[in-house]
Amino acid sequence: MDEAGIRQIAAQSAAIKQRFFDENARLLLEVGQRITECLRSGGKVLTFGNGGSAADAQHFAGELVGRFLRDRAGLPALALTTDPSVITAIGNDMGFDAIFRRQLEAHGRPGDVAVGISTSGRSPNVVEAMRLARHRGLLTVGMSGGGGGRLGGLVHYLIDVPSDETPRIQEVHGMVVHILCQLVEEAMTR
């Protein structure tokens, strides 16, 4: 790769972001409002995904519990990707596809928000967890790319990036997490 290749990658990323946010600003406002309503009602946000999506889930929960841009009270959020003892016990005893579903059984309550992140929309453990979350009365938000895969038909809100390239999808997901955190934080500190 040379300098032109780097500029081309940056241009592709910027173009996908611009298209996504032009088309989905209203959706993000609505999701931010729904998350805020959940938190104001005493609910919590449960986030999960695999690999880079696990990192996005943890980042989202961390910004809500800690702080994003403002000093404020901590907001209840939990990344279901962070407890190795729980994940490995469930994975060993029930299979990897159950690692998020089982944790949602334990922690999810009607009115909570489940945010499942899968760049393909096809990760079996994310799909199974979303199916259960929807059945149990949680508000479901899926973050994906390439059309949403199996997540698309399972969630109340699908945040789908118009790309099939995992790096480009993850770049948009990172910005989505930041925008949702800012929307929620601003609403919670008014």
Note down, in words, how this protein is organized.
This protein is α/β, with parallel strands linked by helices and 190 residues long. The chain has a single domain, classed as 3-Layer(aba) Sandwich (Rossmann fold), CATH 3.40.50.10490. The chain has helices at residues 3-40, 52-65, 84-94, 99-107, 124-135, 166-188, and strands at 45-49, 77-79, 113-117, 139-145, 157-161. Strands 2-1-3-4-5 form a 5-stranded parallel sheet, sandwiched between helices. Helix 5 (124-135) links the parallel strand 3 (113-117) and strand 4. Helix 3 (84-94) crosses helix 4. The radius of gyration is 16 Å and the shape is globular. The protein starts with a helix and ends with a helix. The model has no long low-confidence stretch (mean pLDDT 97).
Strand order of the largest sheet: 2-1-3-4-5
By DSSP, the count of extended strands is: 5
Number of domains: 1
Tally of helical runs: 6
- What order do the helices and strands follow? HEHEHHEHEEH
**How would a crystallographer describe the biggest sheet?**
5 strands, parallel
Strand content: 5-15%
| CATH superfamily caption | Glucose-6-phosphate isomerase like protein, domain 1
Unreliable residue stretches: none
- Rg computed from alpha carbons, rounded to a whole number of angstroms: 16 Å
Q: Indicate the mean pLDDT.
A: 97
CATH topology: Rossmann fold
How far do the termini sit from each other? 48 Å
Structural class: alpha/beta
CATH architecture: 3-Layer(aba) Sandwich
Helix content: 55-70%
Q: Write down the overall geometry.
A: globular
CATH level 1 class label: Alpha Beta
